[in-house]
Batch of 2 targets.
Target 1
Amino acid sequence: MARDADAQKRHVRAAVRAARADRDAATRDRAAAALSAQLIALVSEAGARRITCYLPTAGEPDPSEFLAWALDHDVEVLLPISLADRNLAWARHSTRIPEAGRHGIREPVGPRLPSTAAATADLMLIPACAVDASGTRLGWGLGYYDRCLAALDPVPPVYAVVFDEEILPRLPRDPHDVPVTGAVTPGGIRRFPIETR
Ligand SMILES: Nc1nc2c(c(=O)[nH]1)N(C=O)[C@@H](CNc1ccc(C(=O)N[C@@H](CCC(=O)O)C(=O)O)cc1)CN2
Ligand SMILES: Nc1ncnc2c1ncn2[C@@H]1O[C@H](COP(=O)(O)OP(=O)(O)OP(=O)(O)O)[C@@H](O)[C@H]1O
């Protein structure tokens, strides 16, 4: 990969990490409530019965209220577990208390499903650092989701969950990057045109 693309990724990751750390509690709470409303709207509109989502770290867009709604509405949610080989496994969201996993991120307890179980989801809601207007997603650099998406056939519609200002005009795209269908932010739902570039 070109050196300038690497530098740009590092720059965006650092800027997003800093902005996420800077939000105060009240701003985070407002964003969390707005985000969950968008996620509920998207899943309801799509009629999705089985989805993937994630348990957030402190600064990430927080889908917790949406996860509680999903439990109440019989929407099955697969949550990620980070494996040592940088593949994901999944376990179902439940009322059981999550436990800290490999990166200190909370992970669901219960029976594990393989990475490819995500192919049976109607919709995937995945964490990201940033996304661009053509659907290129930037993660945190360990390739968990790139590896997972590459192994899915079919790939369900995939939405990156980010803050509004994390939708950028253009990010570097690598050959292994699987473009996302859209993005969900506290401010709305965006679908990206499918195009090659
Ligand atoms: N809530 C949540 N769960 C998730 C993800 C996520 O982004 N958010 N993941 C999405 O992939 C996977 C975990 N991915 C991770 C990616 C990077 C680091 C991390 O600590 N990165 C360090 C650099 C580490 C290194 O380069 O070795 C850092 O950002 O400082 C942790 C987990 C699965 N679960
Ligand atoms: N399909 C794949 N198979 C094997 N390795 C992969 C695959 N996709 C990405 N990788 C590797 O994962 C590493 C991280 O890639 P990249 O920087 O694009 O990740 P990212 O988009 O930030 O991560 P994530 O998917 O975890 O959000 C790179 O070393 C890349 O080569």
Target 2
Amino acid sequence: MAVYTHLGSERLAELIASYDVGELVSAKGIAEGISNSNWLIETTGRDGTGARYVLTMYERRIDVTDLPFFLGLLDHLAAEGCAVPATIHDRDGAACREVEGKAVALIEFLPGVSPSEPSPAQAHSAGRALARVHLAGTRYPHTRQNPLTAENSAGILARFSESRLAGIDPDLPATAARASDIARQMLGGLPESIIHSDLFPDNVLMLGDEVSGLIDFYFAANGAMAYDLAVTHAAWAFDPRGETIDAAVGRALVAGYESVRPLSAEERAALPLLAQAGCLRFVASRTEDWFDTPGDALVRRKDPMEFARRLEFYRDAGQGAFA
Ligand SMILES: Nc1ncnc2c1ncn2[C@@H]1O[C@H](COP(=O)(O)OP(=O)(O)OP(=O)(O)O)[C@@H](O)[C@H]1O
Ligand SMILES: N[C@@H](CCO)C(=O)O
């Protein structure tokens, strides 16, 4: 479920009329997604031949003062030829508006479906698309600090007692105990750009084996490009429970990335630690969400252990995880 706010047809038509996109024809709530309300909007289009958009209402987690960074980033990357949806600006040139006290944005609709079991060919294409975003991101003039660094993730986990963590899973405290050690080992100095930070397969739209769109840039920030690749490896190259690696998918992802932006020796050497830091970020955010979300809520809680297992895998396998 991902329509948290009811918007009546008159209110929707009024909102769409503030954009030069033709008249509202239909609006359907999009079931996927957790954080925001999303609608698939059809209009008559500027030239009467019909057009589709996604309307997003920012419900939680996103600080609205970050929206100009996120929406400006979509416009920048789209203008640089990356497969990301551009923001539609209203008749006054604004990228976002307010409805019922909440910020909304109208975004270009991109075709495609997210792979649920990505193939190596799809991972190769995702790697290429990520590298293109990194190259184009170096020319984005705005900055945003990453709030989910390894240090901050360790800080989040430190707020919960061992027994509370063990209430989620008996093995979770052991992973949490290693968090500050991972944070301490993180080195600066790797090449940086704008990173997506959350490029799970469900944030990639594909037509066959080709990426048609990267979406959900709401964790984007400045950071090490190799870290983003490592996060994407963790998100793509395992079974959902994080028990078994699909090495072919992982290799294809990195090979696709390097076909556009080769890694330096330092970046390659750092991948196992960066992947542990990436996993730590999801262990921390999922643990925090777990305690913030009642068990009977409509939103399904995500299991931090899926990434605690991946973290242990990267720790044990080292460079072998990328071979
Ligand atoms: N620009 C787009 N073009 C086509 N479909 C889109 C677009 N943006 C979003 N979608 C669709 O809407 C769904 C929900 O979007 P999204 O994943 O951004 O939701 P969210 O609630 O903002 O994020 P999350 O689930 O990560 O919290 C996506 O799975 C995708 O199907
Ligand atoms: N993609 C994240 C949620 C958004 O940060 C996860 O699976 O935990």
